[in-house]
Amino acid sequence: MRILAILGTRPEIIKLVPVILALRNCAGVEVRLCHTGQHQALGLDLLAATGIECDHMLSRETGILLADLFPRLIAETGAVLNTDHPDLVIVQGDTATAAAGALSAFNRSIPIAHVEAGLRSGDLALPWPEEGYRRIISPLARWHFAPTAGAADNLRRENIDPAAIHQTGNTVIDALHLAREMLRSKPALGSEADTVLAALGGAPFALATIHRREQDSDDLRNIGAALCDLAQDIAIVLPAHPRPESRVLIDVVKDHPAIHVVAPFDYFAFIRLLDAARLVLTDSGGIQEEGTALGKPVLVLRSVTERAEAVTAGAAQLVGNDMTAMLQAARQHLADNTDPIPADVFGDGKAAQRIARILNASV
Ligand SMILES: CC(=O)N[C@@H]1[C@@H](OP(=O)(O)OP(=O)(O)OC[C@H]2O[C@@H](n3ccc(=O)[nH]c3=O)[C@H](O)[C@@H]2O)O[C@H](CO)[C@@H](O)[C@@H]1O
Fold it and tell me: Which residues are in the UDP-N-acetylglucosamine 2-epimerase domain (predicted)?
């Protein structure tokens, strides 16, 4: 059986590596990769560290508009399908790469497996474009690998065949377990974090990541001003996302002595920092999941989240773009000095095995 995984962003790589490794352990299964170049370099460290090579590496100019990127991704992934002729295609989550890859496969009657199926915010504008993309994929997919019961319920409400829905857990937890295991045997994998950890000198720090498209320049300036305020109480490490808009935020915080603006970390270094952080401030989806599993207080700079489980588990708190609320919550966490209990609401780290077993048994 030939499977083609279509990916292109850092989180897709992180969440599909465990699935690729599990499938490659199945007799008679060949897994090939098409990287669309949507994120040119982010995440390639994890592929290299796990010995996974891309069979197709599509090139991409920087700064391309989403409206121009999407049709190109459909055409380019279609060309790959025309040569590879896979028995099935795997896509992950909610990116332009995932939606375009699914449409290309659908146009060729190639069955689609959707990893991290069923996440919904109920608002097409938040997150944009991801809520729209994941809703596009669902009606086209033959296998729906839902990370949680809530995600599975969302799919059933959309009349997806219950027999096609499999609650597996989120593979981000598989990746977290893999990264921590690899760091234990090869600590040098996380060495990118050494410099900033040395600069911190063992002091507690908050880890902040801001990358969502909905954050406009005013939002980013407000967030920057709030981070400068919070930095009076705790050092902040900010790996800056390569999106051009991140410049607005960096310009506000870059000269603050207690804010360490750094390039995006490779996955191993980031997990090392996440493990060490006192507090997490983020608009990321995956980091809400990872923070919950690690028992970190996560302040979510989004007004809605498809990770309600993180909030229920007491790990995540939605503060949206209300920086007064963010500062109050952050200072409350610092004063309480009590961390949330690590929760396995996003899975037990065996999601990839379940996905591989189901796919291997059904084609
Ligand atoms: C709407 C939404 O929530 N959609 C999500 C979005 O993913 P995201 O929001 O999680 O995206 P990011 O925040 O970019 O990535 C986070 C990952 O990156 C690692 N990391 C971070 C900083 C760094 O310096 N070095 C790193 O290695 C970190 O450990 C983590 O695993 O799209 C995915 C694809 O479809 C979806 O699955 C997912 O629902």
Answer: 23-359
Regions in the chain scoring below 70 on pLDDT: 363
User: Nearest residue CA, atom 25 of ligand 1?
Assistant: 265
Pairing of strands 165-167, 205-209: unpaired
134-173: pLDDT as tens digits? 999 999 999 999 999 999 999 999 999 999 999 999 999 9
3-state SS record for 33-60: EEECCCCCCCCHHHHHHCCCCCCEECCC
> Which letter does DSSP use for residue 266 in this model?
P
Which two structure tokens, joined as six digits, stand for 124?
Answer: 């097409």
CA distance 39 to 9: 5
The pTM for the full model equals: 0.97
pLDDT for res 308: 94
Ligand 1: does its nearest atom lie under 6 Å from the Cβ of 209?
A: yes
How buried is residue 267: exposed, middle or buried, by Cβ count under 10 Å (0-12/13-18/19+)?
A: buried
Whose C-alpha lies nearest to ligand 1, atom 10? 286
pLDDT at 363: 67
pLDDT computed for residue 103 by the predictor: 98
Q: What residues contact 34, with CB distance under 8 A and at least 6 apart?
A: 4, 5, 6, 7, 54, 55, 56, 58, 77, 80, 84, 101
Ligand 1 atom at shortest distance from the alpha carbon of 43? 27
What is the atom index within ligand 1 of the atom nearest the CA of 265?
Answer: 24
- What is the structure's pLDDT at 214? 79
The Cα 103–Cα 77 span in angstroms is 9
How many angstroms separate the CA atoms of 101 and 135, rounded?
14
Q: What is the distance between the alpha carbons of residues 303 and 133, in angstroms, rounded to a whole number?
A: 19
Question: Distances in Å between the alpha carbon of 252 and those of 168, 224, 330?
Answer: 42, 5, 20
